What does this fold into?
Amino acid sequence: MDWKTQTRIHVRFVDVDLLGHVNNAKYVTYLEEARVVYFRQFPELDFTKPDYVLGNSVILASLKLDYRSPTYLNETLVIGLGATELRRSSFTLEYTVEEEKTKRLVANASTVMVYFDYRAQKSCEIPETLRRRFEEVEGRKFG
It folds into this structure.
């Protein structure tokens, strides 16, 4: 898929297990790093800003990850991602993970993110302004 948001991740020694390939748990961290890059396009959700005040934001509700081929030390991964569905209070992000040089598919993933009121500790409806931001970032309308 032609993702508008992509993140490059270089595989480090600490990521590799005794069998010589990236440990399966590291992919969850790689996806998280890609989400941080994605959310920087949403000023209202960019929790990496020093002046960010926790209020309504997103929380991870579900993760599905399918491994397609192993990754090795010193390879570079390209993670493409984007929103594929917006619901009342949640949205789905889809991911592809490829090895940069060979374009080998390493993994596919999807996460369901919930728009969440951290003060009240409950989900809340995604506001119209945020829905429009998704459309701007993705370059398409959501139904």
Notes: The longest strand covers residues 105-117.
